[in-house]
Amino acid sequence: MGHDRIIVLGATGSIGCQTLDIVRQLGDRFEVVGLAASSNWQRLAEYADRAHTKEVALTSEQAAAKLRAARQDLNVRSGPAGLVDLLQSVPADVVVVAIAGLAALDPLIDALRRSLRVAFASKEPLVAAGRVVMETSRSHGARLLPIDSEISAVFQCLQGVPRESVEKILLTASGGPFAGLSSEELARVTPEQALAHPTWQMGPKVTVDSASLMNKGFEVFELRWLFDVPVDRIEVVIHYQSVIHSAVQLVDSSVLAQMSLPDMRAPIQYALTYPERRANALPRLDLSALGQMTFARPDTARFPCLRIAYQAARAGGTYPAVLNAADEVAVAAFLEGRLGFTAVPALLEAVLEAHDPKSDDCLDNVLAADRWARQAAEAKIGVIAGRF
């Protein structure tokens, strides 16, 4: 089997670093032909050297200027358009999209239009523009392969299962670092506490979303679009050990679950080598050593972001795009100390209530809703913060 040419967008983040680790372990299965990052130009240059590629991109113009000055041997593209330029100018077979936020949408759409295999960890494009993303994938014969452990688990459980046999999807959640806190304690949570996830090592945005359960809400959108499952047939279950990554309940009462130790390299490898499974040196699950697994229902009174996500998913139209944009603004404000942890869902609800929805079958409508929501969220931060 020949090697596949791969481009990694978000190469210096957690998923990107682990992707490159898996690529190295797979030997000659892949050839890295391009790398992109946000602003960490030193690490990007280091990774480009390791991968023996000269084709890179940085969304930060300032970082790109520093890299060009330091490394004239690299072909450095810059700005948000630099990601798309990298895809358009460097022939590839596989693209890994691991960029935080809606910045992933343009390169994801471009990769799908090129009929490439896309392994993705970026939730926001499917949250905000799921209909457009899936229609683009279908019309161009492109393959979307999930990297997120929970979405990958459902994908694996559904292999060979007729869709009419699926009764519901059981989407597991670790519960985050604040599962045992009271509402009063949640109001005092600091950014430092929110960034200390007990199970997974992730970027700051997704880590805060995991603590609020918004990340799980976003995964409901992913499942809804990727597998064409009605929102009300997706059930979130808290599973504290993070061993069952998700499960599928069938109409005959059987439940198929995908299990492994919590290690993102496993779903990354499956997305890269699908449908092939390759041996690796990852730690193995020892059920006898695990001893027990425990579960609970999510508490949407203490963690209302999950409830809000379900409401936006049911409402459809441009409400999901507004939810995504408002959450990006809210999380940034929380990390900057301008908004309390429990004020985040209040801000989301205020922005959603003020929105005049449009159809989500047009990308222009989605992007307009995204811009409006960001401005509306920024304008409401002061008022909302004053209530908490």
What would your notes on this structure say?
There is one protein chain. The model has no long low-confidence stretch (mean pLDDT 95). Helices cover 47% and strands 16% of the residues. The chain starts with a strand and ends with a helix. It has 388 residues and is of the alpha/beta class. It is built from 17 helices and twelve strands. The longest helix is centred in the last third of the chain and has 23 residues, at 363-385. It folds into three domains: 4-146, NAD(P)-binding Rossmann-like Domain (Rossmann fold); 150-263 and 288-313, no CATH class; 316-388, Rna Polymerase Sigma Factor, Chain: A (Orthogonal Bundle).
Q: Give me the strand/helix succession.
A: EHEHEHEHEHEHEHEHHHHEEEHHEHHHH
β-strand percent reads 15-25%
| Class by SSE composition | alpha/beta
Largest sheet: 7 strands, parallel
Measured as a percent range, the helix fraction is 40-55%
The geometry reads as globular
Our measurement of the CA-to-CA distance between the termini, rounded to an integer number of angstroms, reads 59 Å
CATH superfamily of the largest domain: NAD(P)-binding Rossmann-like Domain
